[in-house]
Amino acid sequence: MIVKNKFSTICIMFTVITIISSVFNLVTGNTIDTHLHLLARFVLCSLGIGSLFIFELLKNKSIYFVQIVHYFCSLGLVLIFVCSTQIVEPLSKNAYRDVFLNYTAVYIAFAIVCIIRGRKIAKKEQKIISNKQDM
Description:
Layout: H1 2-27, H2 35-50, H3 53-57, H4 63-85, H5 95-134
Helix pairs in contact: 1-2, 2-4, 4-5
C-alpha cells in the first residue's frame, strides 16, 4: 500500500511539475522540450518521492536528524543523476548550481511543512494521551 501511494505521488508530482515547466517555457518563448528532459524530470520526481522511505526507516529518530540525513542522501542521488546525464547530453555550465538551488528551495519548503505537521500531530497525540490519563 505504501509503494502504491508513493507511485501515485510520483505521477501527480511529475504531472504538476511538467505542466508548470511547460507553461513557463511557452511564456518565455521556448517551444521545444526534449523527451530526455521529460524522462529526467520523471527520474528526479521518483528519486525525491522514493527517498521518503528514509523517513519510514528512521521514524524513531529526531525529526531534525531525519531531515538532515534525508536532505544529504536525496541531494546526493540527485547530483549523481545529473552527473550521469552528461553522458547523453552536455550540461549547462550552471547545471549543478541550478539543481542544488532548486532542490534546496523545494526541500526547505517541504521540511517546514513536515515539521509543522509533525508538531501538530504530536500535540494531538499528547492531548489524547493526557485525556486518557485523566479518565
